[in-house]
Amino acid sequence: MLKALQLILSIITVGLALYIMLTHSYQFLSFLNILLGFTMLVLGAIEWQKRKKSSAWLLFFVALFSWFSLRCSAGLSVFTA
Q1: Are 59 and 71 in contact (CB under 8 A)?
Q2: What is the pTM of this model?
Q3: What is the DSSP letter of 25?
Q4: What's the rounded mean pLDDT across residues 32-39?
Q5: Separation CA 74–CA 8 (nearest Å)
Q6: What is the pLDDT of residues 37-46, one digit of tens each?
């Protein structure tokens, strides 16, 4: 189940990244960032099931950083109330 989800998310993510690079249409960049985060989250879950805790935690933090950078790039400041 997770392997199939990983494959689907990876294909969509790579396809969208190629579309953005070839057309120079950056309006989908935030959607790409969200997809990348979900892909890393699924990869972390797969590593967690394999009992590779350190790489799983790293992938979880990469997913969180991806979503955090999306928040920062949207103009939402982390330091304001």
Answers
A1: no
A2: 0.80
A3: -
A4: 92
A5: 27
A6: 999 999 999 9
